[in-house]
Amino acid sequence: MRLSxxxxxxxxxxxxDRLLDEELVDLEIGENDFVFLVENLILRDxxxxxxIDEEATxxxxxxxxxLEEGSTEWDVELERKKEELSIARGYVSF
Length: 94
Hints:
There is one protein chain. By secondary structure, this protein is mainly alpha-helical. The chain has one domain (5-89). The protein is built from 3 helices and no strands. The protein is elongated. The mean pLDDT is 93.
């Protein structure tokens, strides 16, 4: 995971505060429950991205052994494979 759980917690709180301050949501649950839900969504998203990244890397290492990790060609192929895996999972990455 690219962010610590502490940072995710802080990020979730900031997102929720902004949504509430701008009156973009109308809560029917407690504010702490809302923050908890947003935090879990962020964590789940980061986990999926991590899994896709690991799967794409493993694929390249196995099927494209001639590519040098960190090279431009590696990066292009890695992004291509990550997008392919994302589409297969129905995951929309940003």
